[in-house]
UniProtKB/TrEMBL annotation:
NCBIfam families: rmlC
Complex and partners: Homodimer.
Protein family: Belongs to the dTDP-4-dehydrorhamnose 3,5-epimerase family.
Catalytic activity: dTDP-4-dehydro-6-deoxy-alpha-D-glucose = dTDP-4-dehydro-beta-L-rhamnose
Keywords: Isomerase
Role according to the record: Catalyzes the epimerization of the C3' and C5'positions of dTDP-6-deoxy-D-xylo-4-hexulose, forming dTDP-6-deoxy-L-lyxo-4-hexulose.
Protein name: dTDP-4-dehydrorhamnose 3,5-epimerase
Entry keyword annotation includes Isomerase: yes
Species: Desulfoluna limicola
Enzyme class: isomerase
Enzyme Commission code(s) on record: 5.1.3.13
Pathway(s) the chain acts in: Carbohydrate biosynthesis; dTDP-L-rhamnose biosynthesis
Amino acid sequence: MKILSTSIEDVKIVEPKRFGDQRGYFFESWHRAKYKEAGITSSFVQDNCSMSRYGTIRGLHFQLVHPQAKLVQVLKGSVYDVAVDIRVGSPTFGQWVGVELSEENGRQLYIPEGFAHGFCVASEEAVFSYKCSDYYMPEDEGGILWSDPGIGIEWPNVESVLSDKDQVYPCLADIEPSRLPKYSGSGGGA
Ligand SMILES: Cc1cn([C@H]2C[C@H](O)[C@@H](COP(=O)(O)OP(=O)(O)O[C@H]3O[C@@H](C)C(=O)[C@@H](O)[C@H]3O)O2)c(=O)[nH]c1=O
């Protein structure tokens, strides 16, 4: 597998080694020892899968007291996946990374704790699968408006389909810093 860096330290692109043959393909989507060797040491406790139709944007989501590092990938279709550094005190606070994840390119994105995460579906449908380092706790969930002009994410030009809650999240600059994760140095996420 290959690890590629991004413009934000700690956010990493993973390219698992894919073995193709006449039947199709095989790849290891998670291997604790190999990922640890590559610097991804999160203890994942929950796996999620969602299917979304073309134009769907999910996000931007985070958990505050129980932050989740995520290892995300697309099993069918294609998405534009985004991680925003919302760790107060981080040298890259407010910056974002966007990466195309698709069944075709087989890429995964590792997003440490303390980031807001979202994605936009660029194919007819997308099956999105991810590991989380802490459990889902709806009462701990926070969100940031996907189109926050202060962040300025360059989403693909699609007609966006959003959940009710995702339409009304505040902009990053309107959130009290005490309601955001704190930066505690590179490598440790939040
Ligand atoms: C995320 C999640 C949702 N649910 C339930 C709650 C709700 O009834 C239904 C749909 O939830 P949501 O609308 O929050 O799903 P969704 O918008 O897909 O939420 C996800 O978005 C992406 C961008 C992330 O980064 C994830 O961490 C998660 O926040 O599924 C769970 O039971 N467990 C979970 O872990």
